[in-house]
Amino acid sequence: MELNNEHNMSGQTAILFAIMIVGVLAFVGLAVDGGNIFKERRVMQNSADSASLSGVHYLVSSNAPSETRLQEIVNSVAEGNGTADTDGTPGNATNGNVRVFYTDARGNRMVTQPCYIVPCGSIPSTARGLEVEVGGQVSTYFLGVIDLDILDVGANAVAVASGGNSAANLGDNVLVAFGSCPNTAKPLDLSASNVDFIGGVYSSTWFENRGDSNHYHGQTYYGKGYGFIDTAAKPGVYEPDPPGMPQPVDTSPGVDPLAGLFTVADFNCSTGAIGSDPSLTCYDLTVFAPAYGNAITTQLLRQQSPDGTTPFLNTTTGKLRPGIYYGGSYPFVIGFKQMVGTVTFVTSSTIKITENDVQLTGYMPDNTVIPGLLFFSAHKPTAPNNECTNHEDLIKTNDGPINTTGNSGTVQPGVYHADDKPGCVDLDQPANCYVLGSLQYIGLIYAPYGRVATSGDGASYVGAIIAPSIRVNGFRTRSNGKKGAPDKVGALFVRDPNLFPDTMQTISLHK
What is the pTM of this model? Predict the structure, then answer.
């Protein structure tokens, strides 16, 4: 009888121990598997955030967006950020783990519309955003003991587009120095001479004209209470209306007119919302950068293209292959004479041009929110005070996002008034009055976090420069010695309305 009791007690102990082990494993599972689930949930949220932002960018930046392409972009970005593909063909319009809904400007699903789930046959004309739901499954390590071998995880995000014409718009400006840099930093510093501005000049704070004989043919704005734009020693000529110095206006706070439109990641050649668009050509040069000292130089641009045929740069003709050049976190150092091309350079590092006879035109087409984008640097200067650092200090440390230099070259020695129309100014068709110089930059030059510096004789900037601080330096008039030669212009800044979006869109996650 005692023996049976011992057997019974042993059996009961074994059962209790087994139950206890299951409980311990369940608690361990809650800790280990719970942490793994939380990590996967964070991945899913990043995936949903990125996919919704990229989808809305395409939605508002295309003249004729298609649902198929919209779904491809959303799926591609979601998959690139951790959401599993379900049909074996990544980047196409099919993924059972991704659902997309159209929203209004407030982020609400458009349930009152005939359809609001993508795809639905056509994109509602009033759609101003997207809600993206992503899902997946996580295998557990310990929770299987309580029959939880696989758990579902998911996340959703809403991104919307807002904004339009406003005081922060690019307007008619060829120079836009936004932000709140103090006068000691000289955020808009024109120390050049003999420069013609066919368009407006804008600074949210300080504007200083330190050069001789600069002509302003558009409206000039600068922040209330700061700066001076002409003196007896350094006069500026303001025309056509009104003559003399325009009155300052209060433009504070200065707002980046392109804020929220895009990031460097949007141009990634494989996953970006812009660079991965099959209608555009994108060259991802980051794989070459380490071999060239972490700098994308002209030597790198001479390498064969991704398809192994035509090189990026033809060293005989100086021609660059047209397209988007995605530099990732690496700088562009352009040091090849007589370089020409229709290109867009994008980097989170610096862009520097050091040679003559450079003629570049922005590649981005008219059907985007950033037509004619030429240079985009998201570099944040390491010097004190970031974008407000004095220009001279930034030049010494080579810490400015975009720096274009070079003297008058051999292709065309400078910018001239047309031979038969000396002194002519045509605000609508500047080409009627000017011959562009050897340094030509046609497109938008954008550095949201720091200085853009320009220097060199005979440069032409057609489009706009947008940055917290801008310096125009080093242009001087030089006679070519020929009898009857037309008046020479040190530099030319021209607003081209074809390069400016009608409305400025701001794209953001809806909270």
Answer: 0.70
